[in-house]
Design brief:
With 690 residues, this protein is of the alpha/beta class. The protein is built from 22 helices and 30 strands. The strands form five sheets. A seven-stranded mixed sheet has the order 3-4-2-1-5-6-7, covered by helices on one side. A seven-stranded mixed sheet has the order 9-8-11-10-12-13-14, with helices on both faces.
Length: 690
C-alpha cells in the first residue's frame, strides 16, 4: 500500500498553474484553498506572475524554500513531466488536474507512460491525471476545481468521473449526506480505486464508502482489498458501461453469456459490495449507509406504519421477492395497539392508523414497537391529509429515533407540504423517501450486503495438484505447437478425466472408410472439428439414430457437409436435465465459473449464474440454490431435481482446472446431463478454447 496520509491530510499545498484570471481552473483552485478555510500553508506557482490573488507567486516548485506535502498541477499536458521531474525533490505527492493523457489517444498514452516511469523511479504518489482533485470537508480543504464544500460526514465518495462529483455534491446537500472525503481518480495512472480503499480502510472518519466506477484496474487486488474493507465498512458501487457491444464474445456459449456486467456483478458479490442499479438507487443506498447502523439488523424483519391504506398496500407489494420480510407481529403487540387505535384500524402489518391520525397515534404505535418483537426496521409512512399535523408527527418520529436502537425510515409522500419536514428528518439522520418502493428496495440492498459478507474470507486457500497441472499443460502445449486454439473431443475428454469429470462414451470415425463397430442405439453422430464451434447451427449434429442404417446415413450426410473432418459417435443420453458449466477467463478478474440451464436454449433463457474463485462447496451450493438456475434443484411437477451435491462437486473440479491452468480462455460443457440421482452426471459436449 502506498502511504497516502500526507496526501489527503497535507500541512502544505502548492498549486502549479495558479492563475489570477477568473474562470481558469488555476484561479478556481487557488480561491478554493485561500477562501474556504483551509489552515495549511499555500504556495502559488506561476512564473508569469509575482502575485496572485494578493499572495506571492513562485516561479517553480524548486523556488519554494521548504518541503511541500502536496502539489496540484494544472498546466498544459506537455509541460507536466518536466515540472514533476524538477519538483520531485521538494514534493512526492501530486494531483494532476491537467487532461491530455491516455484519454486522448496514442500521443497522450505516450505522455502517461513516461510519467508512470518517472513516478516508479522517484516513488511518487500521483492522483489523476485528468481528474477533478479531492475534497476533505472536515479540514475545509477543497483541492479541486469543484465549487464550495460539502458538509462533513462519515461517507467517502470515490469517482472515476469528475463531472459526476459536482452533481453528487449538490444532491447530497439536499439529502443531508455528509462526506469524510470526496476523491476524483481520473485516469488512475498511479493511484487507483484499490489504493484509495486501502487508505479508507484505516481512516477513522470514514464509516461507509460510495464509488462510481467505469472499470477496475487490478481485479485480483481490488477483490482482495474490497472483501477485507467491506467487512468493516459498507461499500456501495455504481458501475457504468454495462453494455460494451465492442467486447461481445461469440466464440462460445460461455463467452457470450459472461459479459462485462455479469462478471462485474459476480465480483462485487464475491467481495460483499452493494451494487446500485442506477444513480437514483446509488443515492438512496448512500443515504442508508450514512444514517443507519447495519449491525442493528440480523433478519431484516420490517414493520410498516401508515396513515393511508393505499400507500401501505404499495409498500407491502414492494416486499415481494425481497430478502427482507414483513414482520409477523405477536398478539401482545397487537393487543397494545388495540388499546388506543380505532376499531377500523388494522393492527396487522402494515399497521393502518387511518387518515385522521394525529401525532399521538404515531407516538403510541412507535412505542408499542419498541420491544425486540416489534421488528428490526420500522418504515413510517405519512401522507399530508387535511387534518394531518405533519410538523408534530415529524417531531415524534425524531424523538423515537433518539431513544430507539431500531433502524427507522420515513416515507413522506407529498410535495410542498412535506418537503420541509423531510429535510428535518434527514437532518436528524433518518433516511426519508418520497416513494415507499424506493425505501424498501434500498433497505433490501442494504440488508443483502450483510448477508453476503458473512461468507467473505471463508475460502481463501487453494492447493494445486502439480502432477495434474503438468500433464494438462503438456497436452495444451502440444496443441499450441500445431497452431490450434480449439481442442477436439478426445483431447477435451482427456482433460476432463484428469480432473475427475465423467464424460459420455465416444467412438472416432476417421474421414475415410467404413467401420466394423457394433454401436448401442439410439446413437448420436457429430462432427469433431476445431473449425466448427456450434454444431447444431451448422448441421454438424444428428440425434436419436435408432439403428445402423440411420447411423450410416447420418455419417454420410455429415461427411458430405464437412469433408475431411473427424466424426464421433456417442450413445444418445435420454432423460435428465441439460446443464451448462463453463470457464471464462476475464482480463480483469481472471477465471470466472459459469453454470446453469444448458442445451440449445442456453443463450435464449440465460438462466445461468456466475462465481469468481476461490469458493468452497457450501458457498457454491448456496449460489446454485439462490441463483437463476435454482429451480433445477427443486422437484417440479414430477421433474426430478438435479443432484445438488454432485453438481457442486463438479463445479469445484472445474474451479481447480480454472485455477491450475491459465492457458484456458474459454471452456464449455454443454450439455452436462444430470439424471437426478439415477446415475452420474455426464459431460456430452465439451469445448475448450486456449
Amino acid at each position: 500500500m502506498v502511504n497516502l496520509e500526507k496526501f489527503f491530510n497535507p500541512s502544505s499545498i502548492a498549486i502549479v498553474g495558479a492563475s489570477d484570471e477568473p474562470g481558469k481552473i488555476g484561479h478556481i483552485l487557488a480561491r478554493n484553498l485561500l477562501e474556504l478555510g483551509y489552515a495549511g500553508k499555500i504556495f502559488l506557482v506561476n512564473p508569469k506572475h509575482e502575485n496572485i490573488l494578493g499572495k506571492k507567486s513562485y516561479p517553480s516548485l524548486g523556488a519554494v524554500a521548504e518541503k511541500i506535502d502536496l502539489a496540484i498541477i494544472v498546466i498544459p499536458a506537455g509541460l507536466v513531466e518536466k515540472v514533476i521531474k524538477e519538483g520531485c525533490a521538494k514534493v512526492n505527492n501530486f494531483v494532476i488536474i491537467s487532461s491530455g493523457f491516455s484519454e486522448i489517444g496514442p500521443e497522450g498514452k505516450e505522455r502517461e507512460k513516461k510519467l508512470i516511469a518517472l513516478a516508479k523511479e522517484k516513488k511518487l504518489n500521483i492522483l489523476g491525471p485528468n481528474c477533478l482533485g479531492f475534497i476533505v470537508p472536515a479540514l475545509k480543504l477543497n483541492a479541486s476545481f469543484a465549487r464550495g464544500l460539502s458538509h462533513a460526514g462519515e461517507t467517502a465518495f470515490i469517482s472515476q468521473s469528475g463531472a459526476l462529483i459536482a452533481s453528487i455534491m449538490d444532491m447530497a446537500e439536499k439529502e443531508r449526506i455528509g462526506f469524510s472525503r470526496i476523491i476524483s481518480i481520473g485516469n488512475k495512472m498511479r493511484i487507483d480505486e484499490t489504493d484509495i480503499l486501502e487508505y479508507l480502510e484505516k481512516d477513522e472518519k470514514t464509516r461507509s464508502i460510495g464509488m462510481y466506477l467505469e472499470g477496475v484496474k487490478n481485479g485480483a487486488k481490488f477483490l482482495e482489498v474490497a472483501a477485507r474493507v467491506s467487512v468493516q465498512k459498507p461499500i456501495v458501487i455504481l458501475k457504468a458501461g454495462r453494455n460494451e457491444k465492442s467486447r461481445k464474445a461469440i466464440a462460445s456459449h460461455t463467452g457470450a453469456l459472461a459479459g462485462d456486467n455479469q462478471i462485474m456483478a459476480a465480483a462485487f458479490k464475491k467481495a460483499g459490495i452493494l451494487s446500485a442499479d442506477s444513480l437514483e438507487e446509488f443515492m438512496d443506498i448512500l443515504e442508508l449507509t450514512a444514517f443507519l447502523n447495519l449491525e442493528k439488523s440480523s433478519k431484516g424483519d420490517s414493520v410498516i406504519i401508515t396513515n393511508a391504506g393505499g400507500v401501505g398496500v404499495l409498500a407491502t407489494d414492494a416486499f415481494d421477492r425481497k430478502k427482507i420480510k414483513l414482520a409477523v407481529l405477536p398478539e401482545e403487540i397487537k393487543n397494545k395497539l388495540r388499546e388506543f387505535l380505532p376499531k377500523e384500524s388494522s393492527v396487522e402489518n402494515p399497521i393502518d392508523l387511518l387518515g385522521d391520525a394525529l401525532e399521538d397515534r404515531y407516538e403510541k404505535t412507535l412505542n408499542a414497537l419498541k420491544e425486540e418483537k416489534g421488528g428490526e426496521n420500522i418504515i413510517c409512512i405519512l401522507t399530508p391529509q387535511i387534518q394531518t399535523p405533519v410538523a408534530k408527527i415529524t417531531q415524534k418520529i425524531i424523538d423515537f429515533k433518539k431513544q430507539s436502537r431500531k433502524n427507522l425510515l420515513a416515507v413522506f409522500v407529498g410535495g410542498e407540504k412535506t418537503e420541509e419536514f423531510s429535510i428535518k428528518l434527514k437532518n436528524n439522520k433518518i433516511p426519508t423517501f418520497l416513494f415507499p418502493e424506493r425505501a424498501v428496495k434500498a433497505l433490501n440492498k442494504y440488508f443483502s450486503f450483510k448477508e453476503a459478507r458473512k461468507t467473505i474470507g471463508e475460502n481463501t486457500a487453494f492447493q494445486p495438484d502439480e502432477s495434474r497441472r503438468k500433464k494438462t499443460r503438456d497436452l495444451l502445449d502440444e496443441i499450441k505447437k500445431k497452431n490450434r486454439q480449439i481442442l477436439v473431443f478426445s483431447e477435451a475428454k482427456e482433460i476432463m478425466n484428469l480432473y475427475g469429470i465423467q464424460t459420455v462414451n465416444h467412438w472416432i470415425l476417421n474421414p475415410e472408410g467404413n467401420w466394423d463397430k457394433n454401436f448401442s442405439y439410439p446413437a448420436t453422430v457429430k462432427v469433431d472439428s476445431d473449425k466448427v464451434l456450434h454444431k447444431t447451427d451448422k448441421k454438424g449434429l444428428i440425434l436419436n439414430l435408432k439403428n445402423a442404417k440411420e447411423l450410416k446415413e447420418a455419417v454420410a450426410e455429415i461427411r458430405h457437409n464437412f469433408p475431411g473432418e473427424k466424426i464421433i459417435v456417442q450413445p444418445m443420453i435420454s432423460g435428465g436435465t441439460e446443464l451448462i458449466l463453463g470457464i471464462k477467463k476475464d482480463e480483469i478478474f481472471g477465471p470466472v465459473l459459469v453454470f446453469g440451464l444448458g442445451g440449445i436454449y442456453t443463450e435464449i433463457f440465460q438462466a445461468v449464474d456466475f462465481a469468481i474463485p476461490y469458493f468452497g462447496k457450501e458457498e457454491i451450493k448456496d449460489i446454485l440454490l439462490k441463483g437463476k438456475s435454482g429451480f433445477l434443484f427443486r422437484e417440479t411437477r414430477g421433474k426430478v431435481a438435479c443432484d445438488l451435491e454432485e453438481i457442486a462437486q463438479i463445479i469445484l473440479k472445474l474451479q481447480s482446472l480454472a485455477l491450475e491452468i491459465d492457458q484456458i480462455k474459454e471452456l464449455d460443457i454443454n450439455p452436462l446431463i444430470s439424471p437426478g440421482g439415477n446415475g452420474p452426471a455426464l459431460a456430452v459436449d465439451i469445448k475448450i478454447i486456449i
